[in-house]
Amino acid sequence: MKIRDIAERIEKIVPLKLAQDWDNVGLLIGDARKNVKRILLTIDITADVVAEAKKLKTDLIVSYHPVIWDGLKKITSEGPSSTVHELIRRNIAVFSIHTALDVVTGGVNDGLAEIIGIEDGKPIGDYVVNPADDNYKLVVFVPAESLAKVSNAVFAAGAGAMGNYSDCGFSTDGTGTFLPLEGAKPAIGHKGQLEKVLEIRFETIVPAEKLDKVIAAMRRPILTKRRPLTLSNFTTAKTNSASAESAN
Q1: Statement to judge: residues 161 and 81 lie in one domain
Q2: Taking all residues of the chain, what is their mean pLDDT, rounded to a whole number?
Q3: What domain range includes position 29?
């Protein structure tokens, strides 16, 4: 297995985009094309850790703290850069994860919160939303007079959360058309007649684990001024993949 393959697997667990802007994560030393047989895990890369890595014939060190923090103006066998020099000389690669591991779900911060007894913890301050979480974009077409009821229902069920914001959505108006055919039982219009209705296209983001609950909330009968209307025309698309599902 090559370093780049291992890096891909690590990122599925700890997405590096979660790291703070000031941090230095990822492959810091080495060639991504290098084959790896032995990996050493560590918090910090010290001289003792490098000595152990050499003894174990380690190909890759996965560390919590980065071995390179600031820009290096020189790399020599003595002084602050001596550890980096020795890693390069011994052809030992380094991959660091640091603040990405801190904030990922189930990571360092969650572990510390559990230890001290925090319940239902929420992120505060400067943090990054996990780009690897499965989210869906929900798009639904609703009568204009039902937009508030539908959006409030899906937000209450868990849709529309983005970082430090809730109730996030977008809507545009337009004209929906349909022609009820033989056997149809239209709630609006008449069979054989083209109907035009002012509709709103409403879309929002939904966490995968709340999708069923949000759809159930959205599909509850909405009482309009004309007659009861059950929502059914909607589409959901996974935001981090090409897969999509729809229902009509």
Answers
A1: no
A2: 84
A3: 3-102
Tokens matching residue 22 = 């000031």
Retrieve residue 119's tokens. 């319940």
One domain, residues 144 and 67: no
Q: Which amino acid is at 191?
A: K
Q: Which residue has the tokens 């047989």?
A: 37
What total number of domains does the chain contain? 2
Q: For residue 236, what pLDDT is reported? A: 67
**Cα(142)–Cα(117) distance, rounded to whole angstroms?**
44
Q: 235, 244 in Cβ contact below 8 A?
A: yes
Q: Distance between CA 204 and CA 181 in Å, rounded?
A: 32
pLDDT band at 128 (very low <50, low <70, confident <90, very high): low
Per the CB < 8 A criterion, the answer to whether 103 and 121 are in contact is no
What pairs with residue 206 in β-bridges? Answer: 136
Residue 29, domain member (yes or no): yes
